[in-house]
């Protein structure tokens, strides 16, 4: 006699994927940092140096953006906050951005310049035309 095994779906304590997803906020209400803009950063290098361009729309470069360099690393920081009020309802959004970029050998840290124009931050890092030092082998001593 053939018996047909029936499969029973075991109930678990975990909700189904559909139930879990239905509890998430609608995509239209989720805002990435910097108000629906993903921060795009472009780094290019030529014979004269490195140019970093970052899209930072809607920020005040004097108050909201800082560019620093320390120990051969360029740091770009930006913060943005915005609030609107209409019909007795207020809404606010905020976000921050941080990018750290290692500078190449020969970067002249004292000559770095930064400019902000039409939402684009451009940081120019001049690099010396000097040949970087050759690789040096370090002798390893043993404890014997």
From TrEMBL:
SUPFAM superfamilies: HSP20-like chaperones. Residues 32-143 form the SHSP domain. Coiled coil: none annotated. InterPro entries: A-crystallin/Hsp20_dom, HSP20-like_chaperone, Small_HSP. It comes from the Bacteria. PROSITE patterns: SHSP. PANTHER family: HEAT-SHOCK PROTEIN 20 FAMILY MEMBER. Belongs to the small heat shock protein (HSP20) family. This is Hsp20/alpha crystallin family protein. The lineage of its organism: Bacteria, Bacillati, Actinomycetota, Actinomycetes, Mycobacteriales.
